[in-house]
Specification:
By secondary structure, the protein is mainly alpha-helical. The chain has three domains: 45 residues; 41 residues, Arc Repressor Mutant, subunit A (Orthogonal Bundle); 55 residues. The N and C termini lie far apart (64 Å). Helix 4 packs across helix 6 and helix 5 packs antiparallel against helix 6. Helix content is 73%, strand content 0%. The chain is elongated and about 65 Å long.
């Protein structure tokens, strides 16, 4: 594919949904005959506002927290893996209210509780904590919320 067609496709892709530089660069690598043209295209997309790291980080954090139930640790790790700068990640994380964060983990753990096979306290607690960790929630909050869910469901 020639440079102009690749630029047009990349701009269309960025117009439909927020994209980060690394994702666009990966697409360009499959589209372009000359990979060195990717730098020019990326620079053009940034200059024209099609790619914006902060806007991408904000959208990513919002969507993955709200719809996937991801915690701050997982969000941060995934954004770093996409090459997003730490300051952009930190600013995006600020949009998550602590009360909403706590409520999200409680809801997730309540849902998990229904499927925990063992009701033996230590095994059930371990399963709940592993689940919270897999979603990227911090250990101290996970312990508190797990105990809260278990206590509210008759496990003392």
């Amino acid at each position: 594919m020639d440079r102009q067609k690749a630029l047009s496709r990349a701009a269309t892709l960025c117009s439909r949904s927020e994209q980060c530089e690394s994702d666009v660069r990966a697409k360009l690598a499959t589209w372009l005959d000359l990979p060195e043209q990717a730098d020019e295209i990326i620079a053009h997309l940034k200059r024209e506002g099609f790619i914006n790291e902060q806007r991408y980080a904000n959208a990513y954090v919002h969507d993955k927290f709200l719809y996937n139930g991801w915690g701050r640790l997982k969000l941060r790790a995934m954004l770093r893996g996409k090459g997003i700068a730490d300051d952009a990640i930190a600013q995006a994380m600020e949009q998550i209210c602590d009360d909403d964060y706590h409520d999200m983990l409680i809801r997730l753990l309540q849902g998990k509780w229904r499927y925990v096979k063992s009701r033996e306290r230590q095994l059930a607690r371990a399963a709940m904590l592993r689940f919270a960790a897999s979603r990227g929630f911090e250990a101290d909050l996970s312990y508190r919320c797990t105990d809260e869910v278990m206590n509210n469901n008759g496990e003392d």
